[in-house]
TrEMBL record:
It comes from the Bacteria. Pfam families: CBM_2 (PF00553), Esterase_PHB (PF10503). It comes from Streptomyces litchfieldiae. Gene3D superfamilies: 2.60.40.290, alpha/beta hydrolase (3.40.50.1820). Residues 298-407 form the CBM2 domain. Keywords: Carbohydrate metabolism, Hydrolase, Polysaccharide degradation, Signal. PROSITE patterns: CBM2. This is PHB depolymerase family esterase.
Amino acid sequence: MLAALLVTAPPASAATLTEVTNFGTNPSNLRMHLYVPDNVTARPAVLVAVHYCTGTGPGFYSGTQFASLADRHGFIVIYPSATRSGQCFDVSSPEALRRGGGSDPVGIRSMVDHVVRTHSADTGRIFVTGASSGAMMTNVLLGNYPDVFAAGAAFAGVPFGCFATTDGSGWNSACAGGTVTRAPQQWGDLVRGSYPGYTGPRPRMQLWHGTNDDILRYPNFGEEIKQWTNVHGLSQTPASTDSPQANWTRTRYGSTGNQAAVEAISIQGGGHNLPTDGMAARAITFFGLDGTTPGPDPDPEPGACRVAVTTNAWNTGLTSSVTITNTGTTPVNGWSLGFTLPTGQTITSGWNATYSPATGTVTATNAAHNAAIAPGASVGIGYQASHTGNTTRPTAFTLNGAACTVA
């Protein structure tokens, strides 16, 4: 009988991060790295993932979950790199805050156009996310190019135009300190002024901020909410307020579904180092890239769980990646996932859980680092197995004895 297995890392993917040069107009000499997953879909969606000051595209690739989420859902990720001193993106110059005005936004737009041309990407599913300087750039790109981006997710940023300067400086201390306050109409006018005459639909926006952010202070979160609700013509009063995870307060504007026009998540006690556990996956849900559809949020479903399985097979072996989501209203503290392996399959190794026995009715038990699953949160596990020709995935799962929905 196979002994219990615990392996911390999944098997390597053939997909790699690749630098792209000569991708188009690039006035500030940005660098471009591209991640195309092995299972990229036909007419794929594209996510631009923008790093923080002092960061790089490859660093953001290795330090966030977006590439692994691309592996799971088949979209392409662009990782721009700033090249100026300090490696911050230009979100302050007059050129950057005007559609087609020059500087970094133009280069990033060129990266998107390159991927659309070379990978036949879906122009209706172009998204952007970023942290800190990258979050500020997310605000800028949605303002400058509302006809390019369908939605954005800004982790610890500031409103469009808040960092504006005219003296050549890239840093605005008043904005960073949270002392720049405007009326919703004034914030909205800054966005509308970046592309005068545009009357088409505006991108949806997801905003994240920690209450203890000491770099870009927390008042910027409220100013961003003012701006994007005004851009969408929405009330400042949330359509819904909930707490999908401990210390999170989520407000939604325009609708109560998981793809509202504006969604804002405040992290009580959170600092500037976002995104952290589970936040990237929430952004992917907001974008609709995980297969969810607009409508009521899937969590909570009292006492329930949801399991998604992706299996990749070759002649005598396979790997299965399993995502377990707590769709109940209370935390799971310690878990066992039960399932039956298809006939002829034998587990040979696994990660993020212990598996026993190797064949037949299997129980996967949590590792020390993933024993707790908050309401609405997920954990990822997986295993490698041999097979004798049957490469199907398990079709039924139980979490601590309760039946799960299979996605």
